[in-house]
Amino acid sequence: MKIRTFFSSMSHVRFQQLGMLFVLIIMCTIFSIILPDFLQISNILNVLKQISVIAILAAGVTFVILTGGIDLSVGSVLALAGVISVLLSKQGINSVVAMLSGILVGALAGLVNGFLVARVRLSPFIVTLGSLTYVRGLAYVISGGYPIALQSDLFKTAGAGTFLSIPIPIYIMLIVYLLSFFILKYTMFGRNVYAIGGNEEAAHLSGIKVNQNLILVYTLSGLLAGLGGIVLAGRLFSGQPTAGQGFELDAIAAVILGGTSLTGGVGTIQGTIIGALIMGVLSNALTLMNVDYYWQQVVKGVVIVLAVLIDRLRKKDK
Amino acid sequence: MHQVTDQSLILRMSNVGKQFAGVQVLKGVNLELYRGEVHALMGENGAGKSTLIKILSGVYQPDQGTIEYMNKKVRWSSPSEARNKGISVIHQELNLSPNISVAENIFMGTKFPKTSLGFIDWKKLNENARQLLHSLGMNLDPEAIVSSLSVAQQQMVEIARAFSIDSKVLVMDEPTATLTDKDISVLFKIINEFKKKGLAIVFISHRMKEIFRIADRCTVLRDGEWIKSMPISETNSHDLVRLMIGREPRSFFHVEQRDTSKYQKQQPVLQINQLQNKKLKNVSFSIHAGEIVGLYGLIGSGRTELVRAIYGADPIDGGEIYIQGNKKEIKNPLEAISAGIGLVPENRKEQGLFLEMSVKENVMIAKMKQLQSKGILRWKQIAETAKDYIQQLNIKYSSLEQHSMNLSGGNQQKILIARLLSMNPKVLLLDEPTRGIDVGAKAEIYSMIYKLAEQGVGVLFISSEMPEVLAVSDRILVMHEGALTAELNREEATQENIMLYATGVNQ
Predict the structure, then answer these.
(1) A Gene Ontology molecular-function term (chain B) (predicted)?
(2) Closest partner residue to A11 among B376, B403, B419, by Cβ?
(3) Which of A56-60, A229-233, A243-247, B495-499 has the lowest mean pLDDT?
(4) Fold of the B269-503 domain
(5) Which of B311, B352, B375 sits opposite A202 (nearest CB)?
């Protein structure tokens, strides 16, 4: 039977994506019925702009979680990158150089995480819990604890500008996801990420340089967090040491909602963007419905637990 | 010898059988245990010792036969029921909680003594432990943390725990495997204490000398069947070995006599000199191109450790590896692969397969990096190459994208061999490549091995099944306790001869 082979050849990863895409579509349908403003172009762009920073972080975190690790430091790395690049720009350094420096700082923070995880063999949770704290601390030290105002217009464009009436952060997010998709599917590095997360011992015995790939993964996550920091600083017109607090948890939530397994080896980048959209659409709709912000938190948390629960039930079915 | 009477009988298993998924793994097994005896359970790998122990201790329920315990028919519903009734098993992997004290471990699961306020009376607990340890002749501090003890001391803690719950039967699964000679003497002294106190001890060991030192009686199993039980004084090591292996080799597969003489004049494709690490004692051997060399050893003999050391998966403390006469420094698997060594690891699911990845990628994972242009993988070409290998090995699959976890064991094993082929190795290290797969897949794997040998690959073939080693190999190496004890050619290699070396009777 054609249909049977079709279904049997469909991996459950794809089913998971379809499942979450389905949830997203249902949510959008319901919200568009009860909220007339929901489907307005301006609102849709607003949602996309709102999720862009978290989504950029979540792309990096997807790589890390695919290897079976975790990165709790991305929110802090974002703040440090923002503070440093705004500070450099304020010193009169060319904005492009300043922005690139911020991204580099992010990559460096990730490199340290990766080295400790891969070479020193510390647990990723502990390593990045540590950097969550000390990287944030560095952001405070460097900024003196106060937001640093951003003067450069070019820099502001990265976060608040538009091109063809579409906000720049949305373009950046799209490019990040297209590149990530490409890397995961069409490069040896991407396949190694899946292999290491699926079975590290087998990957090692197959001649994959496990440590080198792990270091690269954490560096990439740091780099994307740095990029997120630039975008957020541009949007806020300032480098703030308090920026992005708790973003790491939103990013991880998006990855998990997107069907990536916390044990590694299973998941996709397109799942993560769907996960980020589900969270973004939910908080947008709740805001449009004038739901109290505190209650929004409650609803978001419940949705995450429900999604994981559904995932568990579905796996038991198999 | 003590007198064997019905009063002294503790446990009798009669005609016990067990099936798994339609396969009879145990049938017609009898075992009688008497007060104050050490009973050696003997048999090759896979003879059914573990299954028997698991039935004895309530992990499995028998399909046939009866168990009588203390003159009553019993049927354990769980391991904890068997344990509470007095049957304790000490596994090779110790079952202790490492970060708490000796006393807590000994009395774990029992009610701790309490003070008048209802808190734990530590003084009393430690005192109880001290008395117990003393009565067993064990010199251990009850307040010591278990993880700070040596393996031998930890084993004593476990033995003390078994004694504290008033065990009548104590099963020890290879208790001496990780002990030094001195520790073994101490252990045997303790076992003798237990004998005096009237326990029955079931003792499993692959070391023949120990059996004759400590056991009173023995039971021999072979291929899941009961062969014989007898007092140890009525037998000797050669007879025991003969009973363990049987007389007729099972020849369910084709035995091919191969002519390897043309390769013998050449330099060996793999030469190992004095390889040593924690588990290996100065191992030296060589394999010529086109040769299939069997490696036999009982579990724990170091055969897996040997191939892992050659492959760079475990560190080595000394020794040299030569490939076609060139010395190679191999510090990790990648270096082994580039030197031309391929490994099919012992445990295909844990060390070999990417279960959640496609058949295609499982086959091609090591080869893929050669099939990219400017850093971009050429999936079309990867798929075509994968199909080639899959056809060569006749792997049954529904789609290249199918996850490898949905394949049968035989097809999974073939995937690993296909991956090996893609690396173009000069030397193959096959660690139990036929374990747990059906006869048809086995035959296909044998013919693949022959084909590769014909093409000039040198093969090291590990198997727990002696007839298989005998049938497949041109030459057979035998290991015991991390050392190579014999190198036998086809004429010298009989089951009996191999087993004498594998159990350390001949050195």
Answers:
(1) ATP binding
(2) B403
(3) B495-499
(4) Rossmann fold (3.40.50)
(5) B352
